[in-house]
Write a structure and sequence with these properties.
The chain is an alpha+beta fold and about 100 residues long. The chain has a domain at about 40-95: Membrane-bound Lytic Murein Transglycosylase D, Chain A, CATH 3.10.350. It has helices spanning about 5-25, 50-60, 70-80; strands at about 40-45, 90-95. Strands 1-2 form a two-stranded antiparallel ribbon.
């Protein structure tokens, strides 16, 4: 293929690049927003376990909606820097919420 008119070819290539790359960016409806995570504090009562705290959060906390209880326990441990599942009466736990 031989290019006869270089100016016309370059102009055509620029128009093609604009159509292929720039126009879709202008009309794209993609957002990169996320929900801001906040924390509430709860205090451990006598008889509480991480399992029943996680089950309660699963039912009542929008942040943990449709999440597995084991995931919630793991997340609570990570947020509160707990290396084990041992919790104590009157211990403060931070719980993520939306």
């Amino acid at each position: 293929m031989k290019i006869v008119n270089k100016k016309k070819f370059i102009r055509s290539m620029i128009i093609l690049l604009v159509i292929v790359f720039i126009i879709p960016l202008i009309f794209a409806k993609v957002t990169f927003s996320y929900k801001q995570v906040e924390y509430i504090s709860i205090y451990v009562d006598y008889g509480d376990t991480l399992w029943n705290i996680a089950e309660t959060q699963q039912r009542t906390n929008e942040y943990y909606k449709d999440k597995d209880v084991r995931y919630i326990i793991s997340d609570i441990k990570k947020v509160n820097n707990l290396s084990t599942s041992d919790i104590y009466v009157e211990q403060e736990l931070k719980i993520p919420t939306v």
